[in-house]
Every structure is written in C-alpha cells, then in structure tokens.
C-alpha cells in the first residue's frame, strides 16, 4: 500500500511489490505542504522502493530544496527526474517518519511551534515574529549529540539537522547540506546573549551565520540527539519529544519535475 496525495486528499492504493512505494503529483502553493505531509506518513522499511514526487511549476521553495535550477517553464511539465536522500527520524513510538529538509530541536523548534499558531504575517515574516516573541523567555538547552565516533555535549541555542539546506521559507540554516550526499549536516549554535543572537539571525538568510565563532558544523549519516524537555520538528511539522535517532537513507526519494 502507499498513500497518493492530490490537493490535500489521501487515497489508499494497492500496488505490486515491484512498483513504486509512493507517488505524489502536486503543483501550486500547496505542493510543499503536500510533500511534507506525505513524507511524515511514509515509513521507510528495508526493501521499499523510492518515494516519488512530481513537482509542478509554482512549487518554488520545494524546488530550491530538492531540485537543480533554473526553472523557466511557465507550466508543469514532468520531464526531469532526480533521486534525493531522505532523513529518517526515530522518535518515541513514531516509527521512522521521513523528511527532506531540516529537523530542529531547540530554539528553532520552539519558534516553529509558535509560528504554527500565527495567522499573520505570511511566509518568512511569520517565523521572524515568532522568534521575537520567544527569544525573551528562552534559556539555553543542555544538548548531547551521540555520533558514531564521538559524543558532543554543549549548552546552546539550537541544533539543526540538515538533510537539505533551508527551512522557514528560505533560511539557509545548513548551507552546506546536500540532499544527494548521503549524510546530514549538523549545525550547533552555542550560548549567545540575546542581543548577539539578534545580530547573528539575519545572516541565516545567506548562510553566513556558520562562520560565527559560536557555531559548529558536523556531518554524520546516523546519530542520536538528546535535548531534555524539547520536541523535534522537521520541515515545519511536529515529530515528537527528544531524544530522537536520525539516519540518512541515501537516494530513497525520487523527484519528478519541470526543467
């Protein structure tokens, strides 16, 4: 069985085991949300075929995350395909929900949760408003990151795990992340005074924040993230409480889109 999504509707379809595990065709403003919902419901298992997503012409943000540019055609034409990594998350009893972009557990996930309650302003400005509302009450988080060959313990603002490079409508939080390389980029932002954090924040739109002395960037294909009292969010959607186990499943998602 797989879930086939069109215009926010879900329909169960029976497929031969040798066929695709999933397929999505979407265009317009709802395309990114459609993919995110489908990725959360998908559970990768050994032997699964890739998950397919057909990107329409106007799905700008999802194209920036998963497809090469430029996009110049005015109407959707399904002629280009590409394979991309899927980030898989083990959280409590959630199974292994998948994400394409970025997972956060810390100040960014707190902001994400707040932004989801706001109806104005639209787009990236909503996340900026949520960030300003939450920063005053925020206290640093005691993180433990268990990698294959090392454990990192740090008190900080956030840890973002990038399968892709952007979230929040275009913030390049993990600018070096590549959805084709089989590893996740892990951004660690240590403790910062609130005013210093506000000065650093605008640099996330260019990716220049990674050069600040308080930041650290690691790479790993599988690891466990502990952040007591925090919840993990991926691509704008709730995953579950920490700790979470993450792994990258190389080239598990196939994308079909217009050039």
Terminal CA distance reads 30 Å
Task: Tell me the Rg in angstroms.
Answer: 18 Å
* Low-pLDDT residue spans: 1-30, 55-80
Structural class: alpha+beta
Description:
By secondary structure, the chain is an alpha+beta fold. Helices cover 18% and strands 37% of the residues. It is built from 5 helices and 15 strands. A hairpin with a 2-residue loop joins strand 13 (231-234) and strand 14. Helix 3 (107-115) crosses helix 4.
Topology:
Blueprint (H helix, E strand, L loop, with lengths): L1 E5 L2 E5 L8 E5 L4 H11 L9 E5 L4 H7 L13 E12 L6 E2 L2 E3 L2 H9 L8 H12 L5 E6 L4 E12 L21 E7 L3 H7 L14 E6 L1 E5 L4 E4 L2 E5 L2 E14 L2
Parallel strand pairs: 1-3, 3-4, 4-15
Antiparallel strand pairs: 1-2, 5-6, 5-15, 7-9, 7-13, 8-9, 8-12, 9-10, 10-11, 12-15, 13-14
Briefly, what is this?
The chain is α+β, with helices and mostly antiparallel strands. The protein contains five helices and 15 strands. The chain has helices at residues 31-41, 60-66, 107-115, 124-135, 194-200; strands at 2-6, 9-13, 22-26, 51-55, 80-91, 98-99, 102-104, 141-146, 151-162, 184-190, 215-220, 222-226, 231-234, 237-241, 244-257.
What are the key terms here?
disordered N terminus, 259 residues, 18% helix, single chain, 5 helices, alpha+beta, 15-stranded mixed β-sheet, globular
